[in-house]
Amino acid sequence: MKYHNKTIFEIIFFARGGQGAKTAAEIIAQAALVEGKFVQSFPSFGPERSGAPTKTYVRISNSEIRTHEPVTDPDVVVVLDETLLDGTVVTEGLDKNEALIINSKKTVEEIKNIIKFEGKIYPVDANRISMEIVGQPRPNTVILGKFIKVTEITKLESVVEEFRHIFEAKIGKEATDKNISAIEKAYDSV
Amino acid sequence: MTKNSKKLALTGGYAAAEALKQINPDVMAVYPITPQTPIIEVFSKFKSDGEVDTEVIHVESEHSAISACVGSSAAGARTVTATSSQGLALMNEILYIASGLRRPILMLVSARALAAPLNIHGDHSDVMGARDSGWVQIFCSTPQEVYDKTIVGMKLAEKVKLPVMVIMDGFNTSHSVENMEILEKEAVQKFVGEYSPEKYLLDIDNPVTFGPVALQNSYFEFRKDLSDAFDTVEGELEKIYEEYGHISGRSYKKIEKYKLEDAEKILVAMGSVGGTIKDAIDKLREDGEKVGLLEISLFRPFPYEEVKKALKDTKEVIVLDRNLAFGTKQVLASEISHSIGKKVKSVVYGLGGRDTFQKQIMDLVKGDNQSGYLL
Question: Which ipTM did the prediction report?
Answer without folding.
Answer: 0.93
